[in-house]
Amino acid sequence: MKREYQRRHSRWYEILLLGLSIHVLVGLPLVIMLPSLERWGWGFWHYLPDVRSNTLIAIGLAFMATALTLRRMSRFPGAQLAANIMPTVTFAFLIAVALLLFTREGYTRQVLFGGYLVSLVWFYLGYFISRRFRKPKLALVPFGEVRQLIGTRRADIRLLELPDLEKMRVDGVVADLRAQDLPAEWEMFLARCTLSHIPVYHVRQVAESLSGRVKIDHLSENEFGSLLPSLFYVGFKRVIDFVGALLLLPILLPVMLVIATAIKLDSKGPVFFLQPRMGYRARPFLMYKFRSMYHDMSGEDFTISEDDPRITRVGRVIRKYRLDELPQIFNILKSEMSFIGPRPESVALSEWYEVDVPFFSYRHVVRPGITGWAQVEQGYAAQVKGMVKKLQYDFYYIKHFSLWLDVLIILKTVRILFTGFGAR
Questions:
Q1: Contact 141, 173 (CB under 8 A)
Q2: Are 378 and 255 found together in one domain?
Q3: What integer pLDDT is reported at residue 211 of this predicted model?
Q4: What is the dihedral of CA 88, 93, 94, 96, to 10 degrees?
Q5: Same structural domain for residues 413 and 302?
Q6: Which of 94, 189, 357, 420 would you call most buried, defined as having the most Cβ atoms within 10 angstroms of its Cβ?
Q7: At 282, is the secondary structure helix, strand, or coil?
Q8: Nearest by Cα to 368 from 271, 267, 275, 299
Q9: Where are the alpha helices (DSSP H) in 321-361?
C-alpha cells in the first residue's frame, strides 16, 4: 500500500527565503517609517534632502546586514541567537555611523537611534515568535550509529520502532545510510519518505550540524575536498587581520604596558613567554605571550589544571580573561597567526599528537588563531582524548570556514572575556 507522509514545516531554505522576505517587506519599512514619522511627520518622503536620505539608507543597510548576519549564524550549532541579537544590531549601526562620519555625510541622530531601537525590538520579537520552528523534529531509523543522537537538546528526536511514520509530522528522517544491517523494508520506508518530499539525512551529517564537530575516524577523498577552505576568504581574512591589528595596536599598547608592569612586580623573570608553535602549513614559529607562570618552575608543556602551582597571582587573572594572549597581535602583523583559527600547539605537543591523533596535521591548512571554534565550544584540552574532540571542532571550523562563523566566534569570545568561561 502506498503511503504518503507530510513534513512538519518547510525545508530550511524555504524558511530562509520566507524569513528574508518578511524582513524586507515588513521589518525594513517599519524600522525606517516609525522613527521617521516620529521626527519628521507624515509625508516626509516628499522632501528628502541629503541629511534625511543618508539617515534612511544607513538604517536600511544596518538592518539588512543584521538580518543576513543573524540568519547565517543561525545555521551553526550553539549560535545562541538571543545573546547575539543586541551586539549584532549594535555593531551594524556603529559601522553605519562610522561610514557616515568617515565620508563626512550629514545624518539625523534621533532618527538613526530610533531605527536602532526599532531594529532591536523587531529581531527580538522575531526570535521569540520563531523559537518553535528552530528546534527540528527528527525521526531516527534504529540501525547503525543513529543512537548517538539520542539525548541531544538541540533537536526533538523520535526513535522509530516500525518503518512507518503513521501520523507523525517531522522535519526529516535520519538514518545510517552505510549500516550493513539495514533491512529491505526500512530501505523502502526511506524511499517513501523521499517521494513524500521528507528529507532523509545521513547520521554523520546531522551529528555534525548538532554538535559542531566533524568526526575524524575516517575521511574519504570527497570529505577531504569539502574540508579545503576558501582561498578567496583566506586572502580576504589576511587583509582584515593585518588592518585590524594595526588599528588595535595603539589601543592595546597602554594595556599591555600595565600588564607587563604587574607581571614584573609580581614575580621574577621576563615579561614575555616565547615558545615555538606549529603554524600555518606546518611551519614552526615563535609565539608571544605574557608570562603567567613562575620562571624557575619546571613541568609539562601544558597546564595541568586551573590550580597548577606554577601559575602566578597575576597569571591567574590574565589567563582567566585571555589577556596573556595580547602580545600575539605581533604574530598577526607578521602573518604567522590570525585573530580566529585553530589554537597553535607547541612543536613538542604537535609531534606527540601526530602519532596518536589521526589527521592532526590537517588543522594546519589555515592560520592558527588567538581564539577559535574549539576554544569557545570546548575550552582548554591537553590530553589525547580531549585533543581528539578539539580536533573535531577544528575540522568543523575548516569545513565551514566563512565570515559568518568568524563573527559568531567573535561574539562568543567577547562573552568569555566577561565571564571567564572557557579559559584554559
A1: yes
A2: yes
A3: 86
A4: 130
A5: yes
A6: 189
A7: helix
A8: 275
A9: 329-333, 347-356
For residues 128 and 155, membership in a common domain is answered with no
- Using alpha carbons only, how large is the chain's radius of gyration in Å? 25
State yes or no: pLDDT of 230 exceeds 70: yes
Question: CB neighbours of 44 closer than 8 A, spacing ≥ 6?
Answer: 36, 37, 52
Q: Which of 157, 176, 211 is the last residue of a domain?
A: 211
Q: Are residues 154 and 77 in the same domain?
A: no
Cβ count within 10 A of residue 52? 19
**Given a cut of 70, is residue 409 above it in pLDDT?**
yes
- Residue 302: per-residue pLDDT: 54
Which residues are 293's β-sheet partners? 311
Q: 385 and 264, same structural domain?
A: yes
Indicate if the pLDDT at residue 166 is higher than 50: yes
DSSP structure class, residue 154: S
Contact 402, 230 (CB under 8 A): yes
Per DSSP, 199 falls in state -
pLDDT of 33 > 50? The answer is: yes
Max distance between CA atoms of the chain, in angstroms, equals 82
Considering the entire predicted model, what is its pTM? 0.82
Last residue of a domain, one of 133, 166, 200: 133
Share of the chain above pLDDT 90, in %: 48
Looking at the domain assignment, is residue 218 inside a domain?
no
Query: Number of folded domains in the chain?
Result: 3
Q: State the Cα–Cα distance between residues 186 and 374, nearest whole angstrom.
A: 37
Asked, for residue 245, whether it belongs to a domain, the answer is yes
CATH number for position 202: 3.40.50
The alpha carbon dihedral of 123, 126, 132, 134 has a sign of negative
Range of the domain at 402: 231-419
Helices (H), 130-202: 131-134, 184-195
355-391, pLDDT tens digit by residue?
A: 877 778 888 999 999 999 998 887 665 555 667 888 8
d(CA 383, CA 179): 32
Mean of per-residue pLDDT scores for the chain:
85
Which of 109, 67, 114 minimizes the C-alpha distance to 88?
67
190 and 244 in a single domain? The answer is no
Length of the chain: 424
Residue 190 located in a structural domain: yes
